[in-house]
Automatic annotation (TrEMBL):
UniProt-recorded name of the protein: SMOX isoform 3
An MF annotation (GO) of this entry: polyamine oxidase activity
Entries under InterPro entries matching the protein: Amino_oxidase (IPR002937), FAD/NAD-bd_sf (IPR036188), Flavin_monoamine_oxidase (IPR050281)
The Amine oxidase domain, residue ranges: 34-268, 308-574
Chain's gene name: SMOX
Cofactor(s) it depends on: FAD
Gene source species: Pan troglodytes (Chimpanzee)
Alphabetical keyword list: FAD, Flavoprotein
Keyword Flavoprotein listed: yes
Gene Ontology biological process terms from the UniProt entry: spermine catabolic process
Comp. bias intervals (Basic and acidic residues): 274-291
Length: 585
């Protein structure tokens, strides 16, 4: 791509004005997860040369976090490639040999949180009894029938009755209960077991949806989430290998780690700082020497923020550095947006985008890995599922803090043991996961051991030799695991969240009133004051773009949704500048 000069008759075009001097649009990507890396990679491949990725944490990958212990790799975050037909994550992994050691048992899993299709799930009650296999199969068939019904409301535009409260959990619980109670063939004892199993299945569902409870998931929108055909796959060498493949084509100086952002100042016709204490970077100056994969030997172009340059966006970092840009791609999680949107954007976000942030849901799903010296479970067992018999008539999946462990739906057996050793992976979600995160490892290991003893009826199960667990809810850079359509929200809210700023129809009147600016005070008082000249001009389009799994209407909550959303926002900018770049070729 060649630098371009705009023609004289386009002098008033806000897209062209700043580029006449600089030749390249500057794009800042916030977040080095799958969405951010995919966006940066796509831009660089199309010839954009002034791209910077700011990552708050000390490593790339976002909600992909592979931890190597001994010879095994454990996934605290993303674990499965969900579907293979047309899934860009699958094709990237397959093309680079990441699935060569994936076993047949890891290639086709019915429930997406199981590590193997081999063996059977052992459903155990809190009285130490194993539920008979035929009872489990009968209940599973019934539950799956009702689950399929929950998809029909969106897909066939069926009306939702008032009794369901537009809730997947409420609808499922009542529908399954009615069918169990009306079954003339089951004895009462069997009915009680099946009624108790409802809550266990809903806990599993809540973990997979990353909601506190399926009661909070919208019934009318539930069927819009789309599953890619094909098996679920585990990457034996770790999901981080996919992240590393994405990052391979990105020069080292482009990604800045440990660089949290405080605020995005957008919709500025022109902006420049005054005062010697903060000096914004010049074009190509990333404050890093070109390292491995960098563009070694090239000198940065320019080193000052020229008074005549036009910058519609300024990114204010926590270290008080100001980075001017033409465009910013925001990839932070919905959890971070919910917590920080009022201070993260100046001026405030449009009212409809704020409403979408509020309506959409994000929860916490955590894993608890327990490593044992020897297995106490049989070779045919692929999971231990916990059924509390006293929850047969329960209408809630919320527990008091001291009973947080009741939200653990069960433990899956990591497979194959030749790779992982003797390891169980427990699942917990919602507010109870946040309570678990506050406990120390010793307390969690003790409670999990007691639960395993209680449900298996084996008082001799030893404590695990090692524990490893995630803490996505309390991590300030995520505030949750992934998104879902909450009761009251719909796919339209996902579209609103993804819509670039400023809005073309009314960029000036759409701003929310939650964060008012005072003239000459555009930056946080935590940094040395750097007032800006904000001389209004023609509004430049697509100053702030949004990506991340929560912005993909069909594939929210998935790694492929995150990657595709990053490519989507990059494509907007590539298309935007296509004609201008062609003028310089």
């Amino acid at each position: 791509m060649q630098s371009c000069e705009s023609s004289g008759d386009s002098a008033d075009d806000p897209l062209s004005r700043g580029l006449r001097r600089r030749g390249q649009p500057r794009v800042v990507v916030i977040g080095a997860g799958l969405a951010g890396l995919a966006a940066a990679k796509a831009l660089l491949e199309q010839g954009f040369t002034d791209v910077t990725v700011l990552e708050a944490s000390s490593h790339i990958g976002g909600r992909v976090q592979s931890v190597k212990l001994g010879h095994a790799t454990f996934e605290l975050g993303a674990t499965w490639i969900h579907g293979s037909h047309g899934n860009p994550i699958y094709h990237l992994a397959e093309a680079n040999g990441l699935l060569e050691e994936t076993t047949d048992g890891e290639r086709s899993v019915g429930r997406i949180s199981l590590y193997s299709k081999n063996g059977v799930a052992c459903y155990l009650t809190n009285h130490g009894r194993r539920i008979p296999k035929d009872v489990v199969e009968e209940f599973s068939d019934l539950y799956n029938e009702v689950y399929n019904l929950t998809q029909e409301f969106f897909r066939h535009d069926k009306p939702v009755n008032a009794e369901s409260q537009n809730s997947v959990g409420v609808f499922t619980r009542e529908e399954v209960r009615n069918r169990i109670r009306n079954d003339p063939d089951d004895p009462e004892a069997t009915k009680r077991l099946k009624l108790a199993m409802i809550q266990q299945y809903l806990k599993v569902e809540s973990c997979e949806s990353s909601s506190h409870s399926m009661d909070e998931v919208s019934l009318s929108a539930f069927g819009e989430w789309t599953e890619i055909p094909g098996a679920h796959h585990i990457i034996p060498s770790g999901f981080m290998r996919v992240v590393e493949l994405l990052a391979e084509g990105i020069p080292a100086h482009v990604i800045q780690l440990g660089k949290p952002v405080r605020c995005i100042h957008w919709d500025q016709a022109s902006a420049r700082p005054r005062g010697p204490e903060i000096e914004p970077r010049g074009e190509g100056d990333h404050n890093h020497d070109a390292g491995e994969g960098g563009q070694g030997g090239e000198e940065p172009q320019g080193g000052r923020w020229d008074e005549d340059e036009q910058w519609p966006v300024v990114v204010e970092c926590e270290d008080c550095e100001l980075i001017p840009a033409d465009h910013v791609i925001v990839t932070v999680s919905l959890g971070v947006l919910k917590r920080q949107y009022t201070s993260f954007f100046r001026p405030g976000l449009p009212t409809e985008k704020v409403a979408a942030i509020h309506r959409l849901g994000i929860g916490t799903t955590d894993k608890i890995f327990l490593e044992f010296e020897e297995p106490f479970w049989g070779p045919e067992c692929n999971s231990l599922q916990f059924v509390w018999e006293d929850e047969a008539e329960s209408h809630t999946l919320t527990y008091p803090p001291e009973l947080w462990y009741r939200k653990i739906c069960g433990f899956d057996v990591l497979y194959p043991p030749e790779r992982y050793g003797h390891v169980l992976s427990g699942w917990i979600c919602g507010e109870e996961a946040l309570v678990m995160e506050k406990c120390d490892d010793e307390a969690v290991a003790e409670i999990c051991t007691e639960m395993l003893r209680q449900f298996t009826g084996n008082p001799n199960i030893p404590k695990p030799r090692r524990i490893l667990r995630s803490a996505w809810g309390s991590n300030p850079y995520f505030r949750g695991s992934y998104s879902y359509t909450q009761v009251g929200s719909s796919g339209a809210d996902v579209e609103k969240l993804a819509k670039p700023l400023p809005y073309t129809e009314s960029s000036k009147t759409a701003h929310g009133s939650s964060t008012k600016q005072q003239p000459g005070h555009l930056f946080s008082s935590k940094c040395p004051e750097q007032p800006l000249d904000a001389n209004r001009g023609a509004v430049k389009p697509m100053q702030v773009l949004f990506s991340g799994e929560a912005t993909h209407r069909k594939y929210y909550s998935t790694t492929h949704g995150a990657l595709l959303s990053g490519q989507r926002e990059a494509a907007r900018l590539i298309e935007m500048y296509r004609d201008l770049f062609q003028q310089g070729t």
